[in-house]
Every structure is written in structure tokens, then in C-alpha cells.
Amino acid sequence: xxxxxxxxxxxxxxxxxxxxxxxxxxxxxxxxxxxxxxxxxxxxxxxxxxxxxxxxxxxxxxxxxxxxxxxxxxxxxxxxxxxxxxxxxxxxxxxxxxxxxxxxxxxxxxxxxxxxxxxxxxxxxxxxxxxxxxxxxxxxxxxxxxxxxxxxxxxxxxxxxxxxxxxxxxxxxxxxxxxxxxxxxxxxxx
Length: 190
Description:
Elements: H1 14-54, E1 58-60, E2 75-79, E3 89-94, E4 97-105, E5 110-113, E6 119-121, E7 124-125, E8 145-146, E9 151-155, E10 173-174, E11 178-187
Antiparallel strand pairs: 1-2, 2-11, 3-4, 3-11, 4-9, 5-6, 5-8, 6-7, 9-10
């Protein structure tokens, strides 16, 4: 006779079948949970990016024009808003760069700056506790000047080094250029 006939395989017991079924069900639940978690994280990240870019841009300060209020390396949050008042810190686009300056005057206001760096808006001296050293700075304008409609006159807090609306190179800022106003410094935490 033929001796190469294999012996019939033994069937697994009911316990072994139940254990294998449980293992396969566990793997399926684990994969489903992992997949759901990954999808949820992707959705949360996408929503966070959308909110950050549309409503609350986060920026890192570069430069010294806003010292001592904001220093190089500070991380800030802006809020998109159409309401800007004197004293607000705003971020705006200028030649594909985002600059941070302080709103000094709005549309229709008359700005005058004397030789000592004192700023007058509509013949009233501005109280500027955020400026540590007043200076006329780099300017090529004859004062007083009137801010055109839909534009803002902005200046940095470090008046001696800031290039801002005092220079016709930057000039008056159009409302469409403004990204938003600074609402919070998140780094450093002090």
C-alpha cells in the first residue's frame, strides 16, 4: 500500500476555536479604535489650523521696533477685527512681510510730531506710557498731516529705530492690509 498518505489533521477543540475567535475580534476592535482615533486627531488638527489662520493668527516677533512692549522672539496671538483704536497693536502686510506697529491715528485724524518726539493727534498730546524714549525718528514728512480715509497712521514703540508711517516708504496703512490686532503674548509667559 501507499505509505505517503498523510494522517488526517486533528480538529481544534471548542476552547481553541473560541480563543482564536476572541483574538481576531480583539484585533478588529483594536484596528477600528486606532483608525477612529487617528481620524479624530486629523479633524482636530485641521480645525485648529483653520481657526489659527482665519481668526487667531499666531506670530513670532522679529526685530526691535516694538521694544520694550514686544521683544525679538516673543510669540503673540492676533485676532482678526475691523475695529482699530488709538493704542492698539496691529499686524499688517507690507511688501510680503508682516509688521507689528501701534495705531496712532485713524481715518481723518490730524497727526503732528514735534522735534522732541511728542505726538499730537487732533491737537491733543498722546499719553504714551509704552514709549520709553521719545524721538522724531526717521521721517520724510512735513507735519501736521491728515490721515486719509480708510487708512491708519502707525508707529513702533522704539521710536528711534522704527520705520513706520512717519516714512513715506511705509506710509499710511490701508485697512485691507491689517491682519488683526494683538490680543495676547503667549511666550514668554511673564
